[in-house]
Give the backbone structure.
Amino acid sequence: MNKLGSHLPTLKKAVAQTNGWPILEMGVGPNSTPYLHYVGDEYHRHVTSYEVKPEYYELSKGYQSKWHDVKLVKSYNDAKINSTRRRGIWGVVLIDHAPAERRIVDIMRVKDNAIMIICHDSEMESDWLYRYSEIYPLFKYRYATNDHPVQTTVLSMFKEFRP
């Protein structure tokens, strides 16, 4: 498995554990976006993907469908992530966007309205860049993968992740 797709096994398990709830993807990608598009269309789960880089948006806009909104925004501040179509709760939020310093900002924006937050690139060697460790104490549940050099961490205020 490559670095870019190392979060997929954890993402798939989180999606299965939050059946029916909407999904938010912060930063489109060659592995997560097609998978989440499939989940949306196949299982009728609403997926919203946000991107700020026009070149990445162009590669992913073809996934736009009845169940999948792919949105280009000027800034992640413009992403409407504090509300969903289903009682304001996201089932899964995937955090895998740039710039790096945005990740903990957006995690805090959804902290109280996301069942599970999937944080890619969470290995300690990358903490100087992403600074996830600053927000870990703010969550009730935390699970970190150890099956790949590029770690993925699941954070939640509501539900413990089952590996």
